[in-house]
Amino acid sequence: QVQVVESGGGLVQSGGSLTLSCVASGYTFSLFAVAWQRQAPGKKRELVASISGMGGSRINYSDSVVGRFTISRDDDKRTAYLQMDSLKPDDTAVYFCYIPQQNAWGQGTQVTVSS
Fold this sequence. Notes:
Blueprint: E1 3-7, E2 10-13, E3 18-25, E4 34-39, E5 46-51, E6 59-61, E7 69-74, E8 79-84, E9 93-99, E10 104-105, E11 109-114
Parallel strand pairs: 2-11
Antiparallel strand pairs: 1-3, 3-8, 4-5, 4-9, 5-6, 7-8, 9-10, 9-11
């Protein structure tokens, strides 16, 4: 059974930083891509960043976070990260870790950026 658990959310001031972690189990972590999505109140879920499996050579970011967020993975720890810098109030949302090829989601972690 695939399990996905996010952590690291919280309250931060505008311009601050947070690092989210995503620990996944129940499958061969290194082989598959990991994605971060977010959903703000009243808005559709949005893809924020993704990183491929098999070494993580392919990385993609949404236009809204490019240059501010960095996605990475540590396959030995079965963990993916989302380093978020220069945070803005518009980044406030619940952030979800998603394993596309396993169709598995975490429970989400709240990120709130105050102005």
